[in-house]
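Page 42, continued from yesterday. The earlier attempt failed because a stray header line got pasted into the input along with the sequence. Redoing it now with the clean sequence only.
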Amino acid sequence: MINLYYNNAYKWKEKNNIFTIGYVIYKNVLYEDEDFLNLVINLKDNIKSIVKEFTGYFAIVIQNQEETILISDIIRSFPVFYTKNGDITDDISLISGELNELSLEELLHCRWISFDDTIYKDVKQIENAQIVVIKKGEIYKEKYFNYQNDDKNTICSYEELDKIYTNIVHKMFKYLNGKTAVIPLSGGQDSRLLLYYTKKLGYKNIISYTYGNKNSDEVKISKKVAEFLDVKWYFIEYKRKDCRQIYNKDFPKMADYFGRGYSIPCIQEVEAIRKLKKDKILNDDCVIIPGFTMDFLAGNHLSSKFIKNEQLSKKILKEEIYKFNYNLSHKENNIFDKKLEEKFNICFDDNNIDIKSAVNIFDTYDFEERQAKYVTNAIRVYDYYGLKWYLPFWDKEIISFWSKVSIKDRYQRKFFINFVNYKYLDLMKYAPVYKKETNVARKNIFSKLKYIILKYYNDPLNFYYYFKYSKYLKYAIIQKNTQYSYFVANDYVKYIKNKEKRNGRRIN
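This time it went through. Structure tokens are written below.
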């Protein structure tokens, strides 16, 4: 069975048992819809090698007499699920089975399900940059692209980086072809960099938007960035009534469409996109262009342990992976040790590892799991509302550059911050970057309670308004967890289990 249909913006195209979705730039030519399908038909005999030359966001399914081939792009932007029996779909509910309890726990610990596992024991998900071949009940997998930090003391210049950003934005213009470029604008670095290049390189049809708490510094900074660059800016205030209404009413639909059986739903932008669509600011002629992943590539996730040592114990490396990724629950993470060891073919309890290898393992997990399964999954809100999107910072050209920047220069985004000051110091002075709150120890019960209450009402993006205040207090006080994602994760896992019960399946 091949059943592919589950996208409201991009449509699967099929001919001669070949299925495609998305778009690519190949030999400097853009291919989309039927053109992309015909390209794959013409290249099908060599597609496994030629896919390395594709730039873009896509999924490919090729069914031959003896085998079925699945191919994903480097960030796996269109999820596809499969079984060893050859069932292929982008709607996991069509091939559901017995729940995988470890996978459900992983959702509660870190927001996504790692590697090729899903919420169902016998259903797998295609991973990023992967070619999967299903033949006579056997599954064969290979990667055609791997993220590696090449840190070979290469001298990286601001001029080279400027040229690369210019190139990838011009590629984006090719895809836009006059459509409205819509840039979600935060108070941070990544979205302003994207807006800056889009504007300065001469694209005319641009709008930006920011959402959340009207009194937050993040909103004020975003507005100043848009003013400085003379770009039309919209603000969507998140109000408790509106956020709770859409969450309570549409959570089942959002859970299925956004979560897909491998990630908690990324619903942060739901209210913003809904309102912009309702007010007819966004339409089918718009393309949403978020600044996803620049934070990762530039090194903001690296801890000081990767800087101060030439070697690192494997046990500490494992703890760093858990600390950064498996931080949603207060439960122990050691139940996932076996998965990590199998993934990296390593025993985390023996010997030391050189620092470059340690960083590569840490980065690989971030790239293939956090970025591909969770961060990029936020694009589902766009195509849920029928809006197309483009991810400029996932271009292989920019990934290649940042893989050459030394670990020390990536630490705390040193190279990146120096670059933006070199490129547009006047903008940085006019609108200083928003600094997120750091965790500060609260000494007594009264200061802790005050912090909990203010967090609900004064969050810069008002994410917590999706949840009832009483529910928030329960998690915050009794379970000692104020993380926004923790609420979504719990609701998503409960929804999955209740859905299985309604379908007559036994839940352990």
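Notes: The two ends are 29 Å apart (CA to CA).
Reminder to self: strip header lines before submitting.
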